[in-house]
Amino acid sequence: MSRNPEAIARMIRDAQRIAICSHINPDGDTLGSAAAMRLALIKMGKDPVLFCDGKVPDQLSFLPGIEEMRIPDEMEESFDLLLAVDVSDIRRLGNGEKLIRKSLHTAQIDHHPTNPLFMEENSVDGDAPASCILIREQIAALGLEIDSDMAVCLYTGISTDTGNFAFASTNAECFEIMSELMGHDLPLAKLNRILFRERAKPQVLLMGRALNSLRYYENGQIAVMKLTQRDFEECGALSEHADTLVNFGLDTIGTRMAMLAREGEDGTIKFSLRAKEPDCVSDIAQQFGGGGHPQAAGITMYGKLDETAGSVLDALIHKLNG
Ligand code: AMP
Ligand code: MN
Ligand code: MN
Asked: How far is the CA of 24 from the centre of ligand 1 (A)?
């Protein structure tokens, strides 16, 4: 598992029509990575097309070019190259998986330690705090300079995946790149407000529901929250509005692991698992067919909210006492 920007640069130089695919339930890192790569490829005279099997969160609609994002459904065209960004495993492409058959070559740039290296060329560094860090390196390997639009994209990915430069994963490389981005008129205060402070009203209402559902187990060491479809409907909220709520559980003093289970419109239950170092939850996510990082992992399952949440809670309790 290592960075491989030169190999991917060669594939990009040999390609003209390039599909860039983000992961389902897209976040700032996968969309920032995709938007930055698109800008770089346009500068090279290539024809990039952005794909994501999911809606771009309103909060991230400021990303330059993100309005070009397409849903991978019935595509007529084929591509010379598919480039997946921040996609930890093939299922996280969702319907974007169809792009693999539509593309002559495949490559990926990612930073998930659980990535099984599922493309032809893989530039994957499990120690990098964000895929956007690797995208910065990829742009350099293509012989391009950063511009102010790319700076907005890269800042978005790096800041969101490091919890606004607060997670243990935050390293010197983040700040080296930030220093460079600041040299390109990065509107830091404005973006910081959009990304980390502002909330839509439905999101504030949903926060209340999540806190109301909060229960502690094992002497407060595990925090569990649940959100039903009814909660989402009554708050007028979307699934994306629940994305950071799991942290309310985790941030409790004495809590070591937190879980948020939410019902999706499509009958799935989506789990967000979090842990404080040195505890780890990605192994538990993998037990249930999910994945992610040691302290931030996720699962998507079919079933009933209470039953599936009960199974995951049992696994967390077992891990805590094991
Ligand atoms: P989330 O709780 O959705 O913020 O996800 C936390 C991390 O877990 C993300 O960085 C994803 O890489 C990973 N993840 C989330 N859901 C899944 C899933 N269903 N399968 C594999 N990995 C996931
Ligand atoms: Mn991501
Ligand atoms: Mn990421």
From this structure: 9
